[in-house]
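Technical appendix A lists one of the benchmark inputs used to test multi-chain prediction within the project. The record comprises two sequence entries:
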Amino acid sequence: MRAREIVSLIKGKVLSGESLLDEVEIKRGFAADLLSDVLALVEVENRDVVLITGITNPQIVRTAVLMDIPMVIVARGKRVPWETITLGEEKGVIVVSTELIVFVTCGLLYKAGIEGARITRGP
Amino acid sequence: MNDLLYSHTYQIQGRDFEHGGEASSDIKEALKRMGINPQVIKRTAIASYEAEMNIIVYTEKGELLLEVYPKMIRVTATDRGPGIEDVELAMKEGYSTAPPEIREMGFGSGMGLPNIKKNADRLLIESHPGKGTKVIFEIDIPNASV
């Protein structure tokens, strides 16, 4: 599913990476507020995973870059600080905010065919 | 093992959450430019990020030293922070001494050191309470992909 379709599905507001919306194709998702869990668990093979979170600081973009995650959705209508937005723009990560809670965001994506991320079993 | 291919030291400022993760991103880019196996890069980047965030969360200042050898990558994280009282306990998943505001930022969940261990082939922690901590980890490069 194209990133642009996801944005319209969750009535999201694109904060960074606008130019990538038609390039990024999402197949899987992972939701977490613990970024260490993202680092520990998520397997990303083809830059096709979206991260859904309630965290707003720049570390969501850093984590996404390190994990080859192309898109981050900030749920619960949280205000995303400027540093996060500019870092997302600089690093080419799509950051979207939505008023929906994490549960509903995940539910909508799942219903639309997005599967759960593959979980790594460690090296 | 002595032929160092590349090394770089990154200074890390404690409490600088805005730039937290920058050194690890740079490490990832440097390893990419060297054409190292992507899995090795990812493991190194994840472990480095956790080590970097530990310095930022718990200390005033520290550094990450990246060394690339033909058959392995070594990262040494050094700080002059409070040290770890009980290293064995700190290695347990979920054990954390982080204050609530750090947890609200998505870190401090007690997964840092276990996550480094999970991604590294070798891990050594030297800590002296009141003086600082040194975390050294190595990741092997399979079949000399450099």
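The interface with chain A takes residues 17-18, 20-22, 24-25, 28, 39, 42-43, 45-46, 49-50, 53, 105-107, 109, 111-112, 114-115, 118-119 of chain B (CB under 8 Å). Chain B has a mean pLDDT of 94. Comparable benchmark entries are summarised in Table A2.
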